[in-house]
TrEMBL record:
<protein>
    <submittedName>
        <fullName>Gfo/Idh/MocA family oxidoreductase</fullName>
    </submittedName>
</protein>
<dbReference type="InterPro" id="IPR051450">
    <property type="entry name" value="Gfo/Idh/MocA_Oxidoreductases"/>
</dbReference>
<feature type="domain" description="GFO/IDH/MocA-like oxidoreductase">
    <location>
        <begin position="156"/>
        <end position="216"/>
    </location>
</feature>
<dbReference type="InterPro" id="IPR000683">
    <property type="entry name" value="Gfo/Idh/MocA-like_OxRdtase_N"/>
</dbReference>
<dbReference type="InterPro" id="IPR055170">
    <property type="entry name" value="GFO_IDH_MocA-like_dom"/>
</dbReference>
<feature type="domain" description="Gfo/Idh/MocA-like oxidoreductase N-terminal">
    <location>
        <begin position="3"/>
        <end position="118"/>
    </location>
</feature>
<dbReference type="Pfam" id="PF01408">
    <property type="entry name" value="GFO_IDH_MocA"/>
</dbReference>
<dbReference type="Pfam" id="PF22725">
    <property type="entry name" value="GFO_IDH_MocA_C3"/>
</dbReference>
<dbReference type="InterPro" id="IPR036291">
    <property type="entry name" value="NAD(P)-bd_dom_sf"/>
</dbReference>
Amino acid sequence: MLKAGVLGAGHLGKIHLRLLKQSEKYELVGFYDADEAHGKKIEAEFGYKFFNSVDALIDAVDMVDIVTPTLSHFECAKQAIAKGKHIFIEKPITNTVEEAEEIRRLLAQNNLRGQVGHVERFNPAYLAVKNDIQSPMFIETHRLAEFNPRGTDVPVVLDLMIHDIDIILSIVKSKIKHISASGVAVISDTPDIANARLEFENGCVANLTASRISLKKMRKARFFQKDAYISVDFLTKKCEVVKMKDAPETPGDFDMILQNAEGVKKQIYFDNPPIPENNSILDELESFAEAIKHNRAPEVTLHDGTEALRVANQIIDSF
């Protein structure tokens, strides 16, 4: 079992602590938090060992789970890498693309593994249809949340939209040729609602909307491609797959048949796969353990995290 330690015991950090504790692939050694009083409280309440310094925790583990505020990701990662430790780092990977590229360089130089916490890659609804999404030409995503002061220190693009940016970049195997976007700061000092249009060299267009001032939550993505429409609800963990094929010569009574202006007939059918139950955060952490064990590339590489951050910053720059 890999010895794991967590840097940061905020809302998400506490979830990581609980899951690492129950994982069969890790031995949770303990955690560090900059707020000592808070750290001591967590230690007393849950029994996780609280370390008094970042260095002390890093020295005691094989893998460092960085769940601190984004501004500190770079320094935490550098400290872990300098001591020869693998790193799992929450999204966004770092504050700047330059910092992300430096971490990638240091990891490669020290032959270490790193994974970025883009957890929607492990969402069961997405996994159920992932192989059905083939060369989509139009993608539409909506990621809406109710207002929460936590996370408003960064634009909504880095807080929420970056999840969908990562999913889209992992699917569309083409370079972006143009980005147009708009964002509005309503409550915070940075944009709380944003829309972006990504145009790819292969003709695919993605339209992304993110808001943290909505009255209801929504996390949906729709993919349109030749002879198929695929919908993923990341929030309710449901999916819908609608496909078309050439209509049979003698359709059945309940077959859904469409005929276009040229007289071509297509049969519409539903092909909704089963959705397994899982814990996406536990799965991403354990997949990283497997990548370390077998010395292979993680599911979400630091390159993936860097490119998602790069595009997110390009969207923000185009406001």
